[in-house]
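Archive entry. Fields below.
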Amino acid sequence: MDQTLIRKLVSADEEYLRDESKKIGHAETISFPETHEQVCQIMAQLYETGTSVTVQGSRTGLAAAAVPFGGHVLNMSRMDKVLSMRAEDDRFYITVQPGVILQKLNKAIAARSFDTSSWDEASQEVYQSFLKAPVQMFTPDPTESTAAIGGMVACNASGARSYHYGATRRHIQAVRAVLANGQTISLRRGEIFAKGLELTIPTEQGDTITVQLPSYKMPNCKNASGYYCCEDMDALDLFIGSDGTLAVLTEIELSLLPVPALTWGVSCFFQKESQAAFYTKLARQIKQGIVAIEYFDPCALDILRRQKAESTAFAGLPFLPDSFGCAVYTELHCDTEEQAYELLEALSQYCAAAGGDPDMTWVASSDSDRDMLHFFRHAVPESVNMQVERTKHTYPEITKVGGDLAVPDEYFEELLELYDSTLKEEGLQHAAWGHIGDNHIHVNILPRDMDEYSRGKALLAKWAGEVSRMGGAVSAEHGVGKLKAPFLEVMYGTEYIREMAALKAAFDPRWMLGRGNLFAPQEEVE
Amino acid sequence: MERIKKGALWVFCEVQENQLLPVGLQLLGRAKTLAEESNRPLYAVVLGKISKDSVKLLHASGAHEVICSVGSAFDEKLEQPYADSLIRLSEQFEPDILLVGATPFGRAFAPRVAAALGTGLTADCTELSIDAESGLLLQTRPAFGGNMMATIRTATSRPQMATVRPGVLPLPEPMEVSDREPITIEDDGQIGLVKLLKETAISRGADISQSKIIVAAGRGIGQKKNLKLVQALADKLGGQVGASRPLVDMGFCPYSSQIGQTGYSVAPDLLICCGISGAVQHLAGIGGAKTVIAINTDPKAPIFAVADYKIVGDCVSVLEHLLKALDEN
Amino acid sequence: MKIIVCMKQVPAAATASIDPLTKTIVRTGRNAVTNPFDLYALQTALDIKSGVGGSVTAITMGIPAAQKVLQDAISRGADDGAILSDRAFAGADTLATSYALSLGINKLGGADLIVCGKMAVDGDTAQIGPELAQHLGISHVSDVSEILEMAPDHLVVRRVWDDVEQELYLPLPALITVAKGQNLPQLPTIPGMLRGRAAQIPTFTAEDLQADIARCGLKGSPTQVVRTFTPPVRGEAQTIDGNEAQQAGQLVQIIREVLHGAD
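PREDICTED_STRUCTURE:
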């Protein structure tokens, strides 16, 4: 066995104790495996001592899932190769290592340029037809495009276009993974199913693991909270969104889709939030061609106005007249211009019906115009982060208090009212934006001092309770990680959490993987 | 006037605040070889008055004659009077080749000359040579969005016109020459309809095209905040920050830091390229760099083809480590 | 004021890559788009129109499909457009292009002001504007970054060059080329998009313009491409291996050698 894979974590490795949640953890050792085999070795070695293992991708997560709580940091950033390509029924599938960065993958797919030198013959052959085929895309589009694929699978990441294309889950075809004891499993969609709530998975070493799936009913909305479980489910789905608590992914097969002929963006502006919600309701009736519906609340637009005025880097943002209260961005994927213009006409009518002015809309039909609207969208979280960073100078403990809650359709208006009334009550500065099409808005509280920080956190907990009552999800896309583990308990209750813990224990009896993720500390004791 | 022969090679030498701009001398240096190869006389053409020393410098840089057109129309640097004068001179003395420095002013007025004379003009050449067979000027520039080079010639019309960016060609070593009078031509041209109301000099600090050490960043730098690392390294080495066009287009960096065909050409002793893939558009601007260190995640990035040292990796973390290592030393 | 804006259709991505199979240029952006610089020109024209009144007409030369840039211009607020399209125009360099454009502008009855983008991202020559002004026999100012004053018979403009900033009085008729400046091209609205799509755009052929065929297209282009090639490469770069700390250590050595060697 190669004993040099695991080394002591030293002060120069400090960055590996953090992620985008800004939480700082602690760990004793670290490794940077490059192959599946190395991961097996590392896990087998750590299993002997039952050492905790925190798996990291590119540490862009917001729920602290990649922040270590002691033990070993298994950093996957050097497992960044695209391994092979496969075609089936005119669809292309690529197998990647978990450390591959989304942005780089997207670039390689768009430019149709992969380093194929280590690919097998079959993949090389498929690659030749890939080069001639229409340009493809991998649709999951989390805002943070430097996310690692492994991290995206671990939290079942989603983005704006998940409104139409679904979250990462829908685009994962197979995984290979290493269990806590160093054994390995290989799962392909459509091959292994649960019988009712009983699931049996063979390891590549010839053992089998049989587990009882938790009996809770998952929320009927966008969801990245806890294990994916339902009767007769595909075994693969259990590992997607499992927050690094069941196994270490080493190979992931992704499915690609052809890029649509036209991608257009339409921004409509409204004076009142209720108008934006009504427009969204109308736009949701369109069943074909709308792939994203995104919202920016008045506070978010105000932050952009300030940024544009203050910072030259944001001077390129489009001008926002004062009459623009809030905005809804709709993205269209169409095969023909005919269809695109039809959708424009429909959206124009809906905009007017909701009380907006079609003459006060933005349409981006070219790459550069769309880049402008994407810049607009990304400028919101970036500006908010900048503002929080400034506060941090005075109060280093303060972080952004960000909600990632979603509810079923019928509760969305109630949720908006809840946000509105409670934020007003508390007098907290905030900005909200996100996936209104999925009833999923990120409300971000921007605390200005420690008192506001703790009141913000309390409010978030209160919302989690209310959302659970509405049958919603406490984390719709960021994953539960460590930060939202207490909310998961609120959402499912202790009994179901115990069922989840039993499931985890079947795969990871020494409770090594992802310590602190999903399970709030008191549940950790087995 | 009999000193001016037809069919000569002309280099327009721009004057800024009574000083010759280096690009004119750079062009003369290259044109000297072209003139020898094609057996043409080489003239430096200046609009407006210049000092004796400047005339001597032009001679020392290779000009056989210095044509100095003087008149009140050249007091202000505006497109039309300069173009009109050069058009008249060209019509009268029929140069075979006319080279102009691709300064903003050169780029603004030279096309008028080409249009009036009904001839071709090749912008931003990176290489000039004489075709041994035809004696025509071969003008090479990046083409097709920047990933190919194209060699262009102007076969049927005269003069053969081309512009070259400042810094692309080296400054020639001045030769020993004796003082010679320029050929002065009185030009009674009019100033034109455009009036200069106000002119202000802008101080921009040191010019990147003159910088000896440049740390340049490209798209691979990822986020804007990472530019701090680039700036820190440049500060530490006593150099300047350069940027590829995408970063300037995104508003991450000012245009004054843009390196490439549409930005500045640079010729530093040391160029450290961080996350620059190396589109030909960009490579066109770094041909003069002596030592190039390139850091890029893509092992196939074209920047590596022009680098002396390469690191395949994330430039942000390499920069972080490099800064640390420099601190420790 | 009658304003004409010259526009060009260019490949969507300014940077292209080489197809590993065919060794030909791959344009990663799939659609052709309006030259980004021309959008600044258009916005300048629209701003002047809203300041002093008048009309904005967009003109382009290209294959019939290039009328898309005119639809784009109309969707962003231009009143109308005209396309110069003829096989005889194909293969034009800047001289032949500016000649054809000058005829097209005359065909439209001329203009008080012609606005061009600083350059096109595919050709990068920045020559069309000045050449066009010369053909039309009017004044021009290149690289305008701001319109300081507008009136029916003149403009006062600012331009910024490397180290000098000028304020210029420009009597009309005249031509300006516009730098990426302080104006921000506005996005089309939904009704604008529908207007652009419905617009009837006239096509002018060489014959319509009574053009001298010898001055058009490839035939009228004095510059000829003799050959194209991928740029030469230096000797292989030396790879700096190791982990990042080791790489940094080696870099320090190299930098030190280069800088001290250069003293």
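CURATOR_NOTE: The two ends of chain C are 60 Å apart (CA to CA).
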